[in-house]
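Hi R.,

Here's the chain you asked about this morning:
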Amino acid sequence: MTIADRYLFPPVSTERIIKAIMWPISIMMVFHKSVVLGINGDRTDDFKPVYEAVLRFLHGQPVYAESYLTVEPHYLYPPSGTLLMAPIAYLDPERSRWVFIALSVAALVLSAYLLTRLFGYRASSWVFPTVLFFFFVSESVANTLIYTNFNSFVLLSLVGFLWFLRQERPWLAGIALGLTIAVKPVLLPVLLLALLKPKMWRALIPALGIPVVLNLIAWRMVVDTDNFMSQTFPYLRETRDYYNSSIGGLGTFYGLAPWLILVLRVMFVAMGAFGVWFLWRYYRDKDEVLWLTASSGILLATSFLVGPLGQGYYSMMLFPLVMTVIRPGSPMRNWPAWLGVYGCMTFDIYYTIRNPRSEHLPQNWEGFGRNLEYLTVTWGWSLLMIAVFFSLLWRYLDLRQARWPRVAATVEA
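And here is the predicted structure, written out as tokens:
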């Protein structure tokens, strides 16, 4: 290389190029999703019913007196969640919503940082801006900010739980989980990881104790806990047929036979159980980070599919599983898994108003687009679970095939 070539073709590392690309794009996506789309909001507003409910709580008025016959967003947090969310009502609705969005963005950035560190990378590496980009390009994060709901803090709770389990600090892991379980019990399934990791069962004490204690305190402060027990709690246990991407919700919407819904649920529970067992059996001691993150994704994806309620933006809890792709041994290193990720995290819209008049084209194009929109998240979760299951199943069968010949040779000898 000549002296001139050194200036004309300066050497630049691949990592530096990736960071130069990802940082400006990621920063602008954070700005756009939070300051522009988040502040603008949308027709669906998850923040308004929460604000109004905790405002009634602070004024000693009934909190759980609304009708659940409509399809509008309802206030469904338990009394412990009401107590924790009460501070948002000390500001006027507009400023409170802006502060909540800012705190949500901070929680997402901190989640991306902890996830980067959990996988052994520095914040100065190319991984951190890439994780941020993937976060904010997803429908899960975008609609969490646009609808302004609690899910950013649930993701931070999950990543914090995995971080502290990895550091073998069960009390902090349990506290991280307990504070969000008190509001939304979405992360209850991952408590199994604390039981499967030696000496980490202590995490269950604060994880379950904090919601119990907060409920006991709030129970004396909420004036209509009878309404919560007689109306809200039964509603939470129902499988509603709108805004529900679980097997039960979508099956009910499309009129599937109850036995078929049950069979599908059992099938995905069986796949999830195998995946959790296989990862625990073969990866816990070899790669604990892969075991924790992949297992958390399998447990949560299974609960989204087979539980009474699975909403599209819950998919953000699968980020730790998705990130395992950079780890050797990840069950995410295949294209069907990523097609599933696209399905459950895409911000693409499939609604269409086109109705071709040509006799050679399908006439019900609008209905096709609507059905595809309804099904996208469910088939995304399903395909992701199936791809992970078969990826691990083939490894299990390969291990058995590799071991049996050795056993036979030993017996013959």
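One quick note: The longest helix spans residues 365-412.

Cheers,
M.
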